[in-house]
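pipeline/complex-builder :: batch 7 item 3
reading input block
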Amino acid sequence: MKQKIFITQKLPGNIESYLQKNGFITETFDKERLITKKELIERARDVDALICLLSNRIDKEVIDNLNKCKIIANYAVGYNNIDVDYAKSKNIIVTNTPDVLTDATADIAVALILACARRLHEGNKLMRQKKFKGWKPDLLLGYDIKDKVVGIIGAGRIGTEVAIRMKAFKTKILYYSRSRNYELEKLTEAKKVSLNYLLKNSDIISIHVPLTESTFHLLNKENMVLMKKSAIIVNTARGEVIDEKFLIKILKQKKIFSAGFDVYENEPDVNPDLLKLDNVFLLPHIGSATIETRTRMAMLAAKNVIEVLKGNKPITPV
Ligand code: NAP
Ligand code: GLV
Ligand code: GLV
């Protein structure tokens, strides 16, 4: 009997035919909308492998209903949507898609930094509203990037690439992370500091920690007040890493300069207060959204599934 793989949404590239060539049956949820939990449980009940999105919550109830599943391949590097410990306790392997999306995501973080520093969203809005009345010395003044201090929170794969890119803008790099990153220090002369020191001394702050119990509201009421009045903060990690309500409050009060968001605390819902602010640049979680990157992510998820279903070790286990 051929083994069956369920994919919770059509992915870029054609991994179905690739998986079929390798001897598997594939089934794909073929609607534009997200699969519901009920549908997911129904469709995945008797499959051998599941390829899912970061927007699919794979909790205990879902896992309890996976009768034959050997692998949950997340189509993302972050895996906070999956109860990994519970899956493991049921002998289900969980994999993610690291590395292949590092550069694309680092690019988006830098794009947000530049957008915030130079008020690109406000300029774009003004043009579209036909309010550009000619060059003016004080039109949409932002901040230089050169000579500024960039604070990287979470110096892993993506954080390191953001630091390398920002170093090219002639900045100074600070980082706060669990482990020391000697490679980063060598490449950018970055200095490892405490979180409070970073928040107090950085002009630009970029967040790259995964969402875990220890990083939930890592940025909170107590420490966000340490940021400079001119600070720019950018989040491409997970919304829940920041106390979003408090960040909105200090943005409203102009206690910091600007913030760039790719991720939100209650995704896909966006706090309506955020939409009223001019000093925020908002993106719909598109960190890895390039044709090449999303295709590589799909191939990596497919290859993880193939290895596990063939009885081999996964390529990128969690
Ligand atoms: P990574 O290589 O694992 O880097 C994460 C870094 O955070 C590691 O250096 C890790 O330290 C550090 N860290 C973990 N917990 C910490 C804590 N409690 N305090 C301080 N530092 C901590 O992951 P990555 O590939 O760079 O991805 C990072 C995150 O970006 C993902 O988890 C995902 O949520 C997000 N992401 C978002 C998008 C998007 O579309 N916006 C795209 C890709 C990824 P250690 O070195 O000690 O483990
Ligand atoms: C995207 O957010 C990812 O974790 O890959
Ligand atoms: C601006 O356009 C300049 O020439 O300085």
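note: The first strand starts at residue 4 and ends at 7.
queue -> next item
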